[in-house]
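Render this sequence as a predicted structure.
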Amino acid sequence: MLQLMVNWLVYSVFKLDPQIKWAQALNFFIYDSLKILLLLFILIFVIGVARTFLPQKKIGQWMGKRGVVGNFYAALFGAVTPFCSCSSIPIFFGFLEAGIPLGVTFSFLITSPLINEYLVILMLGFFGWKITVLYVASGMAIGIVSGLILGRMNLDKYLVLDIAEKIKGNHEEKVYTQFVQRLQFGWSESASITGKILVWVLVGVGVGAAIHNYVPPGMVEGIISKTGIFSVPIAVIIGVPMYGSCAAIVPIAVALFQKGFPLGTALSFMMAVAALSLPEAIMLRRAMHLRLIAIFFMVTTVAIIFTGYLFNFLQRILL
């Protein structure tokens, strides 16, 4: 419905030619901005209301003092949420605001765009159950291991001050006795966070719209086909600045594989596009200093590259 409304606005009200690239980019920008902002507001509102029932200290204790278990739960929750990297950020911010440890929240942020139900269905159709099962397992592993590594690097000091203070618990928790108060808190939190991240969302989606409409897919295939043993890291490096959901990039991964590219090269490109987009980095600037964003991208990139080489090694067994 939202897409139809945006199409009507851009192509009927503004009377722009749908074949023109900048008109397509404008359509993409308006649709994704509205979608992410609405999702941001609704999810933070729901999380805010839920937080009034679960005190932040208890949430932090439940997910933060169980080692691998906390990261596993976060990665599992990420796997069942059908969001791209940018759409996962609202929940990620909500987790941070709730005082959940940084490493645990990273496990969610990494896994959420890598694994979801529609991606699994697409992969079953294109690659079969063996590759799909291993992909899901590797996506979970990337989220859990990367979250554990990041969580042990004492990176809270690189968070923006107001969020860092909430994670440290340097604020007084309020007791809510009426449901109306819970709704008011959720609304206040949602409006506050949405307002703070609004500019970053618009900038990030704007960058994504430009990349989505002006970077030819054939250019990616041409570069990767000439890289030999370095195809996996180069595929990841090319994929990072691109923007799109993992499900949307599956057809490109399939096309690369069908052209004779190693399986791991194609899948690592898909993972990089899904989990490490430039618009995501821009939006994360609301909560993190640039050094933390760089460390997050670096750790996740290394994990994806390792997974790509693993798939290349196992290709003969899987096919």
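Summary. The chain has one domain: 2-318. The chain has a mean pLDDT of 78.
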